[in-house]
Amino acid sequence: MCTVNAAHENTRDGGPDNLEDLMIHTSGVEVRRGGNKLLSDLDWSVELDERWVILGPNGAGKTTLLKLAAAELHPTSGTVHILGERLGRTDVFELRTRIGFTSAAVNARVPGDEKVRDVVVSAGYAVMGRWRERYDELDTERADELLAALGIAHLATREYGTLSEGERKRTLIARAQMTDPELLLLDEPAAGLDLGGREDLVARLSGLALDPDAPAMVLVTHHVEEIPPGFTHALLLAEGRVVAGGLLDDVLTAENLSATFGQDLVLERSGDRYFARRR
Ligand SMILES: Nc1ncnc2c1ncn2[C@@H]1O[C@H](COP(=O)(O)OP(=O)(O)OP(=O)(O)O)[C@@H](O)[C@H]1O
């Protein structure tokens, strides 16, 4: 077991003594489903100014971990604190309003005829695909600002179902930011994008990561090429366990990647980007 950011002393209720500085803290977490251990022995902490990337092969437990962080799942055992609140002892509906989350599951919940601006602005009302009373003008302005920052202001009145994959991803990232979350969770935001779309998204996420006013971020990806410059930490998962976790430069090595993916991998760095291939 790898203990990540182990410097935090635990108090008697399983929480660290500096919880107010921690966006996520898991201690001895296990998640079991149908006899399978999806996550085991998971100790992990994310601080206010950190941007984490989670890497690992298919089935490693990345999405399960992100769902825990999004307060969409409870651990079978162990403790999870999100934004200082302990799962199981807090109102998760309230907690979720403080978290921005994008995933394939969120994408699947958006009705195709929903207008792009409404997809974004409705996050502030914690609804999706329902008729709402009038939106506040300030909220609409904020949604438009977020769409503009992601380069899709011109799509504000388009129906979500008519968007390309890349445009949908950007719309959902704008939605995730709408409530000014304290924690931003992105599950495979670059999946399904072509090279240009991926590079554009990586650049935009890099801009966000480097913004000192941006929230703490956790991004799940399959590919080191998708790590946006500005990300600070990495967690490598395999078979529900942490292989390595900590500062990106320390953790992202050919040795750790090879152990994580069960192959002899070469890792190259070009500027502030990473590339990996089999030896
Ligand atoms: N409800 C469930 N019952 C049994 N097994 C489950 C359940 N949900 C997920 N799993 C299994 O848990 C493992 C981890 O799933 P998870 O989606 O977290 O992996 P992942 O790392 O995100 O994978 P991918 O990269 O393929 O998206 C997988 O083997 C999956 O089949």
Automatic annotation (TrEMBL):
Q: Is ATP-binding a UniProt keyword of this protein?
A: yes
Q: Which InterPro entries match?
A: AAA+_ATPase, ABC_transporter-like_ATP-bd, P-loop_NTPase
Q: Per the database entry, which stretches of residues form a coiled coil?
A: none
What's in the keyword line of the UniProt record? Answer: ATP-binding, Nucleotide-binding
List the Pfam families: ABC_tran
The ABC transporter domain sits at: 24-264
Keyword hit for ATP-binding:
yes
Q: Mind telling me which PROSITE patterns this protein's record contains? A: ABC_TRANSPORTER_2
Q: Name one GO molecular function term.
A: ATP binding
Which residue ranges does UniProt annotate as crossing the membrane? none
Under what name is this protein listed? Iron complex transport system ATP-binding protein
Species assigned in the record:
Prauserella rugosa
